[in-house]
């Protein structure tokens, strides 16, 4: 097996490539760039592509996947495609509609993984971030367990091979795991995870429940002013990571990605630059000894780049708990 195509088995029997390509980009980046980058990613060997309704690029990402199937680079079953249910579709009767809308945009018959994007229900409608006259997010009272039951039906219908969650804390995961009549456990929890926020406790919790942790913002963050504090430290400029990069003759990004893989985490690498996309797939070409892993562990400061300010004050805001 080509090391590039390493996969980990999920609790429902399907498997996920351990390295994924993230497609989120700030609004000022043309959506077409996500499509072009996804094509390059598939060409260089990525087989796991991560998108979401909220990224507003499903059409472009779907086009990239289909063009690479059409030109013979891959078959549909070679590509693991993830998308996410946005918070305005959490009412049980809207869940399947949300997924069908994503599938139409992607022009795919199914996704390999469908995630609840946040544990936060918001007012249904056309607006991505519904707000009142004071600019406060309008939430919706939906039990996440009811949303999960509708997710289970999407899996039964064959529209999603696997179902999981994103940005859930351990209490919210437990709520679903302890739900009476649970049919499928979440296969994964996709969360922000990098050396400054290594999610050690959440990782141990997820492992104990057979849930895979998937890391986004694994290289720090895109530093979009709307989402990220501009005074936040730049992860890839950390001197310790720089020293390890020099030692192993790798880029700081590769050190950060390799760190996650060796912890048993599925990691998303996001870049729209061809050179970096090609570099990132080289993460399988070296290993970090345990003493270097410990050095990176020591960088943890529970620092979160993506604080989801739109959801602060919501009863299900996930980041108030320690993990």
TrEMBL record:
Ranges where the NADP-dependent oxidoreductase domain occurs: 19-300
Binding site for substrate: 117
Catalytic residues (positions): 55 (proton donor)
Pfam families tied to this protein: Aldo_ket_red
Site positions (Lowers pKa of active site Tyr): 84
Example of a GO MF term: oxidoreductase activity
The keyword Membrane belongs to this UniProt entry's keyword annotation: no
Keywords recorded for this protein, A-Z: NADP, Oxidoreductase
Domain of life from the UniProt record: Eukaryota
InterPro entries in alphabetical order: AKR, AKR1C, Aldo/ket_reductase_CS, NAD(P)_OxRdtase_dom_sf, NADP_OxRdtase_dom
Family: Belongs to the aldo/keto reductase family.
Full protein name: NADP-dependent oxidoreductase domain-containing protein
Name of the encoding gene: PGER4
